[in-house]
Fold this sequence. Notes:
Elements (H helix, E strand, L loop, with lengths): L1 H25 L6 H24 L19 H31 L18 H17 L2 H30 L1 H9 L9 H20 L1
Amino acid sequence: MIIELTLSLFFTFISSLIIYWVIHLKVEDKNKKVVKIFYNFHSVIWAFTLITIPIINSSFLRFFLPENISYFKDYWILFALLGIVFIILGINFARRASKLKKNKLKNENNSNLITSGVFRIIRHPNYSAWIIIFFGIALISDSLVSLIFCPIVLLLLEIHASIEEKLVLKPRYGNNYDIFKEKSPSRIIPTPLNLLLVIIAMIIVYVGFLNIS
């Protein structure tokens, strides 16, 4: 039951991405009320699916749902603390990006590309926030399924960001965006955070072998 529900949520996440780009490419007037409603609903779908998947697969529900098992076992508290750090980091990325975007909207010339603040190290801090928070929740929930989904979600967000750059940002900002890409080379996971994630992933796999043996 849990696997089916997890796959349904993940399919909903992917479908939302596909519908988003279909609407963006097919509908010329982006100011239509229906389009705006979907764009807002699109974010809700992202948040709901990326938070619900770790929760329903959490080892805390194994007493009620036999399919759920503990992955970290005796090491859980250490990874839970690490998960809290990642969630705080992700929220911080999102907060800083949101603040810069609000300041841009208040500015009379709001067509300028944002290149300051967190955008100097991450080209898409909001997408970075999504994957970092999802990873943090996966660690806290002690969910092997969610940990497996982390690189998949990261890949999908990378593809989404790449399409957005080619179809939206590059046509809108032209050469200014090429200059911005050189100054902020990382798309979603910046250095040294990407190296840290690789190390943590290796530790997670090692802990899994320890618990199995």
